[in-house]
Amino acid sequence: MPLKIRLARAGSKKRPYYHVVVADARSPRDGRFIESLGSWNPLLPKDGERVKVDADRVKHWLSHGAQPTDRVLRFLDEAGIAKREARSNPKKAEPGKKAQERAALLKKAQDDAAAAAAAAPTEAEAATAE
């Protein structure tokens, strides 16, 4: 049975509140779960009361093969329970095709201007030397 440590939504409309639970990965988000491990109240300001997790039980379930979801893994990393690998998407930081073309044209124009500026003083020196 594939186990997940994930969030189950509770609370009323426009007032979210989440329970951190261990559940079968195939069960619905708010459906049957095996054990409740804590809670997350996203409406609270950033302090210690916002996320509450039973560290011992989380470690127990992690040792039994439960996989945390991305959001829960972020909480566990902040609590020092589990390590979250840093993600890197180098393609996202690259500019698009049009921006790259514009940058190439701008660089070429700057190179041409620099070459013209370098050639202009030599012509002026040649004219004054005559």
Describe this structure in words.
The protein has helices spanning 55-63, 70-79, 90-93, 97-129; strands at residues 3-12, 15-24, 35-40, 51-53, 67-68. With 130 residues, the chain is α+β, with helices and mostly antiparallel strands. It has two domains: 3-79, S16 Ribosomal Protein, Chain: A (2-Layer Sandwich), CATH 3.30.1320; 92-129. The mean pLDDT is 89. Helices cover 43% and strands 24% of the residues. It has a five-stranded mixed β-sheet.
Largest sheet: 5 strands, mixed
Order of H and E elements = EEEEHEHHH
Helix content: 40-55%
Measured by DSSP, the beta-strand proportion falls in 15-25%
If classified by CATH, what would the architecture of the largest domain be?
A: 2-Layer Sandwich
Low-confidence stretches: none
Into how many domains do the coordinates divide? 2
CATH class of the largest domain: Alpha Beta
Tally the helices: 4
CATH fold-level topology of the largest domain: S16 Ribosomal Protein, Chain: A
Q: Look at the structure and give the mean pLDDT.
A: 89
- How many runs of DSSP E, i.e. beta strands? 5
Shape: rod-shaped
- Rounded to the nearest angstrom, the radius of gyration is 29 Å
What strand order characterises the main sheet? 4-3-2-1-5
Structural class: alpha+beta
End-to-end gap = 93 Å
